[in-house]
Amino acid sequence: MKKRSPTPRFIPRTPGAKIGAGMEPSRSAFGQFLRKWRLQRGIGQRSLARMIGCSQVRISSLERGETRRLRESHIASFARVLAVPEARIQRMLPPAAPLLPALTPMARLLRARREALGLSRIELAKRVGRINDAYVGVLEREGRELRYALMVRLAKALEIDQSALVPYVAPDATPPVGSLGTAIRQRRKALGLSAVALGERVGISKTAVLAIEKGKVMLTQNRSDRQIERIALALGMSADELAALRVPAVPADIPPARTAGEHIARARIARRWTQEALARRAGLSASSVCKIESNQVRPRVSSLRLLAETLEIDADELARLRPPRETR
Question: How many percent of the chain have pLDDT more than 90?
Answer without folding.
Answer: 19
